[in-house]
């Protein structure tokens, strides 16, 4: 494999660890835990893993002999920078605790466990992937582990390979499934522990014990670099409005973080749109009002950040999408229809009158995108809906009317962008390289000390890595009951942008100024070497939350 100069140099980087993980470790139990809501229901569903204490690692002088363990690791869901470092952290941790320990990787996501596809991860393999982006070491997938036959197939391969523990590196849904699996294996006395690791660029797997999901830092830095570059072009040419959609299936954390880093003219926040019950028309009016004000100042250019999940947070669209999700799941009648006109007529005849109206009011392209295949969780794939183009079209039409009425005098020319896949496999920033390695290392300690149903937790992350606090948090602590496919299910509560949280408040205190005056910031590319205040910088979100 030919490597870039950066890859070669990065391979030599030794990720930093919290102090407690540098030598012998002692586990200190915290208080017993409760789920965030619906305690009685969650406790009933997880008799073996509910209520366990949080765990903090501390340094000790007393060395311990750890039993030999064989571990299987799974990457689940979308790629996020740092996944390879979680795996190298697990590997190094396991080897340090007992050199006879072995690590296997299940291939292509959770499906690898069920289909018995795996490889042994030896030092040679691991060394090829240290500090690199991507999930290609073993691949990822979105198969859901939710049925008993799948769990039982997992037991078969674990018995064959002598695997005593599985680490699932995934988002909220995958970690929910990890906990269900942990509970099932404890109940069956299968002798297989399950540990989770918090992954997703979307940043929506976080709570008091999980400060950030990994990959968020790097992905936001990559997007912010690109937004900054566009802003510099925009401020040089002074002729375009750039509508930039940013990944994040549901929550707007990425858009908010990028706004804090780059100070665009507009950043929409889906959670605010929902709270204010805004319509598509009102969002368009808001964008037009900023464009009109800027035109009065002679500035006919700007940047507008749009969170990927926006469309689902507009109340009327949410209802429509919910109805479409139910209607189109495994719908052979619909799939047999050939023309868009037939599909539209079918949908309008089946959904509520209000949703039918909304559906018919959408530009044809967007309406068609809403009917595309669902993901394995039955959700519309928002990354395939071109909200940025929808908004351009609607803003253009509105400005035309305003011009005819003599209320708008500027020129409007727009370009669209979608940043998502550009950042998901970037080489991890120093923060993510260190954070991920520490999460993996933490998982190896949790396994070697017999824990199951825990998620690796590394806190105090705005401080230098030496001062980070590592340990474990029971997954059940993050759960509540939610309706999924018509049934109440225990799931990890998704963390949306909090409208009374410090990052959003910081944004709202500045946004009017950024809208009217051009106040762009140009963050530039991720730096791996150089002054610590540049190379080890954490996200503005973390700094606002903790600082
Ligand atoms: P995860 O939650 O699995 O980490 O995935 C996040 C994400 O990158 C979203 O931001 C995006 O909507 C989605 O994955 C895209 O999915 P796909 O990779 O299947 O196109």
Molecular structure report:
This protein is α/β, with parallel strands linked by helices and 547 residues long. The protein folds into two domains: 37-215 and 428-484, Rossmann fold; 217-424 and 501-522, Phosphofructokinase domain (Rossmann fold, 3-Layer(aba) Sandwich), CATH 3.40.50.460. It is 44% helix and 16% strand. It is built from 23 helices and 16 strands. Strands 1, 2, 3, 4, 5, 6, 7, 8, 13 and 14 form a ten-stranded mixed sheet that branches. A four-stranded parallel sheet has the order 10-11-9-12, with helices on both faces. The chain has a two-stranded antiparallel sheet with strand order 15-16. The radius of gyration is 24 Å and the shape is globular. The structure holds 1,6-di-O-phosphono-beta-D-fructofuranose (FBP). Residues 77-78, 80, 171, 200-202, 247-249, 308, 382-383, 424 line the site of 1,6-di-O-phosphono-beta-D-fructofuranose.
Q: What are the main properties of this structure?
A:
single chain, Rossmann fold, 2 domains, 23 helices, globular, binds 1,6-di-O-phosphono-beta-D-fructofuranose
